[in-house]
Fold:
Amino acid sequence: MRTKSLLAILVPAIAAIGAGSVQAQSLDPACSQSYTPIYSIQGSGLSAAVTGSVTTEGVVTGDFEGITAASGFYIQDTTGDGNAFTSDGIFVYTGPADLVSVGELVRVTGYAHERYDQTTLNGSSSIGSAVPAANIIHCGTGSVTETEVSFPVATTDYLERYEGMLVRLPQALVIAEYFDYERFGEIVLALPLDGEPRPYTGTAIDEPGAPALARALANSLRRVTLDDVRSGQNPSVLRHPNGDPFSLSNRFRGGDTVQGVKGVLGYDFGLYRIYPTTGATYMAANPRPSPPTRIDTVQVGYLNTLNYFLTLDYPTGNPLDNKCGPLLNVECRGADSDQPLEFSRQRDKLLATVVGIDADVVGLNEIENTAGVDPLADIVTGLNEISGAGTYAAIDTGVIGADAIRVGLIYRPSVVTPIGAYQILNSTVDPRFIDTKNRPSLAQTFKVNATDERFTVVVNHLKSKGSACDDVGDPDTGDGQGNCNQTRVLAAQALVDWIATDPTGSGDPDFLIVGDLNSYAKEDPVAAIKRGADDAPSTVDDYTDLAQTYEGPYAYSYVFDGQAGYIDYALASYKLATQVTGFTIWHINADETDVFDYDTSFKPSSQEALYEANEFRSSDHDALLVGLNLDTIWGFGGFRPPVDAPPMVNTAKAGAAVPVKFSLNGDRGLAIFATGYPRVVTLASCSGGSSDEIELTVSAGGSTLTYDPLAGLYTYVWKTQKAWSGSCRRLELEFADGSTNAYADFAFR
Structure:
């Protein structure tokens, strides 16, 4: 055991540059006795090198006595040993006592060991044993210059060498995470990867597997938690990173920056933490956005309601508990029955969001799915009270599926009119779509009142990553895509195949997929949707990810574990993508701390007073808005027998003349095809769905086009070639009005 006396350290401490100094010295004889230096106790490993009863000495750098989270103070050797791998600081646990002040030079006798993985001096081997006042001797005063720590660090445990030491973070760091801010006063500060605005989830930017995992590792080397040193839930005064109390006039958002953080670096609850000793320089780099300006004459919005339930959530054991869902037997969500302000607060924020987004059709998810309860009617009533009678209406679906929540649609009757009945995608329609995991998808076609143009909105909410799918053989494979990835992939494939059948009978190729896909931009389910029903890229059934197109690779709508990305989507079909005039993600939620949300559980009155009846933190997901300027198109009505649309594969004899019948909503003349169409594309394989024999062929010397006014059908007699025997071909149609996405697949024998 290395020991040294006060006289041995006094001269080098005063002479050391930037290390520390002793300004005054006690004459207490105990202060001249030998002791074990802090750096010897700490050692160079992850746990204490010296354990058991020891006496050590240092200057108090952080006095956190009497505060539940720490209940003690930190001391640091005034000179250190010059070894970059050993810490010069240590934590002293004193329980509720108040025994020292910052700047005091003290001798402490205690029991050295790991307490919650932080090297600590306790009164005994028990982690709850406080060092008594008699074991703390005041030997004078001194100071320690903080050690500068910059990111990225080399390894995930690199900060261990600074455990217990006074440090300063010189870089401008982004406020990346604030999930535990209102409960525990914690904020994650991070240095983004070079050239990026903030940390991003691995699969939001990079492909699953090694690239995404490398990003996640890199992010972990660039972050630290800023802690207010209190563990009590929802403190009455929240500490802003600038050191002042958090308030409506002194708030922060994700993406804002903090520079020059100074405090003691400790370790608790599995994380390295900075316990601040003074305020840092704060910059509001990401101010709150105004409501989006109107993009075009028709706008489609999407938002997450954060579990909008009219049936309140009762405590476990209450007779009214578990009364939600279609069978009135599942747990309710959303506002709590024992929190009288929660529902009205949630409703006010939700209504403010819908009004602010100013959309003509709005897809919603996480709304109550209980028999006899109509959350959409309640939302519409509230909106119409604000905007005027009849401004909004809802697509009345009743309960959908068996889950506690479902998706829904509301719209403005003055702008659009629903055409035909809504349709539902569930396990009955396609067994690949497991509706006990995914919420059933909802499709509805709308007509623009001013132009009669049609488009179909499909609202989705796929299986989350939050719980396992081991029961269906779909575990987390460790590639960064989380739980249930294949469940989401199959649902995505079922979705685009279903849409390809035009389930609502719209006769129009304009489809907009919106919703929470619980998949980041580079994950497999998103790729499956973008490839369309033929599962091939760069073809006429592809979908365009509007977030990537309009906001680029660093788009985000959601923050999880201090990393941004988006799992909320607007994907436009091939033809509709050309009619999109704008897209925005309204950042009203993901960047806001929970202290602003409707939940009042555990919040003291001072936190409740921060609530405002506005759109900010109405949910944990940001809202989306799409602008549309729909072309006047003829409206392809789908193929008629004997030809079947994908995913069906038609089988025919090579060399036969196949009558391809379809409608265009009336007689458009015979010059209906775009230049170069119809065209035939060779396929590598006939890998579509089931096959169907062409029931009828005709005799023809060549391909011809006719129109039957009585049936309202075009017939294109397609003369195939005998040389196509044994091959797979696709007949693609594109029309002179610019509409596309009409094709049929054939296997020739």
User: Anything to note?
Assistant: Confidence is low (pLDDT under 50) at residues 1-18.
